[in-house]
Each structure stands twice: as C-alpha cells, then as structure tokens.
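Example (one chain per record):
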Amino acid sequence: MSANALHVVFKVAGVEYALPADDVIQMESFNGATAVPGTRPYVAGVVQIRGKVVALIDLRTRFGLPPIERSLESRVLVARFQDRTVGLLVDSAREVVKLDLAALQPPPEMIAHEANGLLKAIAQVGPRMLLVLDFSKVIGEE
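Predicted structure:
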C-alpha cells in the first residue's frame, strides 16, 4: 500500500505547483508588503501575519517571471522550514489534493538543471501536472 500526503496546490503564471500541506501553516490574502532594502530581488519585503513579521518571497520573481498586477486572487502561503517561517506570494491558491507519494516522479534531468533544483518532483493528477517544489531551495536554504 502506498502512502498519500496532502499537498497545497497554487498557481504561478498559469502553472500549478504543490507544497506538502505539513509545511504550510496558513493561507492569507495579499495586502501588500513593506520593502526591505538590500534583500535579494525575489524578496518582496516583509508582511505581518497574525502578529508575526515574516519575509515574503515573490515566486514570480524567484522563478524569473515578469511581475503582474496583484489581484484579489493573489495569496500568501505561510510555510515553515525547520525553524524559519516564510511567506510565498503566489498568483492564486485554493486547493488541497492528496498525492500518492509513490507516483511522484523526479523532474527530467534537463528540467531539474534549468530549474536550479527548485523542483523536487512532478505529480500527475488525472490530466493535470503538478510541480512539487523543494521548499528549502525556494527560500534559499540550500
């Protein structure tokens, strides 16, 4: 019997990505961020989530994509890696799916290289393809 794990699904530039639900603390609407000078270009700044200040990573910028005007669909996924809590700014997020961990496939070598290790696996869910992110690499904890 293979193990299943819940994953939060979100979109960036029309592509569906997933993170293990165990890593995601909460989802919030995006209401803007306070820019912090001297940070990496993909750090949108800081936001306050339930009284705690967290760094916000804009996944569009992190992935080398052009910025867009943020909308009511924009979400902040608040996630934890070890002892760090970080917000991920995504275009939309509203779904949790159960993925069969045995069915996850590693990304093709060329894709893995081009994506700088940001992709951990690829999941086929019916006709959909979900890209499972390596959260530690996304937040710069290689």
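Caption: The chain is about 10% helix and 50% strand.
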